[in-house]
């Protein structure tokens, strides 16, 4: 078993609050809209969006590795723009990973904009090594998705203000 952490910082001209509103408060509606080629839908399975809520993210056949993942919200801190969830079913769980937790933090920058810090904590299954190519692919995919969200918000300046 390998325990690891992956961190990615992405700068954005958008305000932290606007990205928070779009991705955390309305991500279940926004993701299929901005990335329909990847995300076919997001359903709230249990809860009201707060800690303990379980969401199922369904992927299109473009995702060759898995068709869905269920996420359990473990932290929402709107004052500090921190959102965290764990995968509880689907995805790479049981295939390559024993556990995985994601955290997003939107840090306002002086003069405007923000930095989104994406952190992934994981434990692989016994006998599974950390795959650096998969790590880079995960970083690239998350950056691409973030940039799609950013472009959508920049082209729709009245949304999520």
TrEMBL record:
Record GO biological process: abscisic acid-activated signaling pathway; defense response
Gene3D superfamilies with a match to the protein in the record: 3.30.530.20
GO CC field: cytoplasm; nucleus
Domain of life: Eukaryota
Residue stretches making up the Bet v I/Major latex protein domain: 1-156
Pfam families according to UniProt: Bet_v_1
SMART domains given in the database record: Bet_v_1 (SM01037)
GO MF annotation, one: signaling receptor activity
PANTHER family cross-referenced by the UniProt entry: OS03G0300400 PROTEIN (PTHR31213:SF201), OS08G0374000 PROTEIN-RELATED (PTHR31213)
Family: Belongs to the BetVI family.
Name the record gives this protein: Bet v I/Major latex protein domain-containing protein
Organism: Araucaria cunninghamii (Hoop pine)
């Amino acid at each position: 078993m390998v325990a690891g952490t992956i961190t990615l910082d992405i700068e954005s001209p958008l305000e932290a609050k606007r990205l928070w509103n779009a991705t955390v408060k309305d991500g279940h509606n926004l993701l299929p809209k901005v990335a329909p080629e990847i995300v076919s839908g997001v359903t709230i399975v249990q809860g009201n969006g707060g800690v303990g809520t379980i969401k199922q993210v369904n992927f299109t056949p473009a995702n060759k590795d898995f068709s869905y993942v269920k996420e359990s919200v473990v932290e929402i801190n709107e004052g500090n723009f921190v959102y965290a969830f764990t995968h509880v079913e689907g995805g790479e769980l049981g295939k390559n990973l024993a556990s995985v937790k994601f955290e997003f933090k939107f840090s306002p920058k002086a003069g405007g904009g923000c930095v989104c810090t994406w952190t992934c904590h994981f434990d692989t299954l016994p006998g599974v090594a950390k795959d650096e190519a998969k790590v880079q692919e995960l970083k690239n995919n998350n950056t691409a998705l973030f940039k799609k969200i950013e472009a959508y918000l920049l082209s729709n300046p009245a949304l999520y203000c």
